[in-house]
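User: Quick sanity check before I run a bigger batch. Here is a single chain. Can you write out its predicted 3D structure?
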Amino acid sequence: MSRRKFLLTFFLGSMGLVFLDSFWLERYIIDWKEFDISEGSENKIKLIHLSDLHINSIKSFHKTMAERINNERPDALFVTGDSVNSKRGVPILDAFLSMIDYDIPKFAIMGNVDYTGRVNSATLRETYKKHNGKLLINQNHKLKVRDRTVNIVGVDDYLCGYPDFLKASRDLDLSVDTIVLNHCPAYRDEIDAINAKLGQKIKLILSGHTHGGQITFFGKAIFTPHGSGNYVKGWYKNALSSLYVSKGIGTRGLPLRFGSRAEAIIFQV
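Assistant: Done. Predicted structure follows.
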């Protein structure tokens, strides 16, 4: 084989691998991660976090994901915004939720695309309610698991809604751990500032929105959407809270991922 032919074959093969990775593997082969932040607690609570489903059709990986959730038997499932792209996606979200065991409590919040897609919050609320779920818009819920209780706080979207962490924290039991659902990670800074006065025991803040950059080079995102702040993906810890930013499930804009594989996260709290 001549040098020229070898280089051409190598180039075409490399482009083929990049195409396969970007349009299929990183989008449809979900990376399941697990973190134990229970600090040795004997009564652990298992939680699964999904974000940015952007669901507009049921694909085989949605079925596989639902099966994994059912097999894990979490104590709760969290969906941190951008469940659908438009109101036409709500029946498809309904179909996806129907594949997940009803007995698993589900908690969701609104994201900016839920709003820009003109999704009716009441319709979305009823959809989650139908599947043992709650849509929390500046609201909270006490989740009781065996002999333990945790606060679930859901804030409205930072970009298109009216996030109010103070309102969302109304009447909370400050003696138990709190988990905050917050779509745009940039609002984390305000949560920390408000909670410095409230004194909640925030165990975890869960966000999405960024898609981990969706397209990255050498681990660096070339673009993150407004509302990301200084957060892209993974853990961000300070003296006030621990934030995890999920790379999410779906895509927005270009139907591909590069260096930012879709993920679902299991937390032991």
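The mean pLDDT is 90.

User: Great, the batch can go ahead then.
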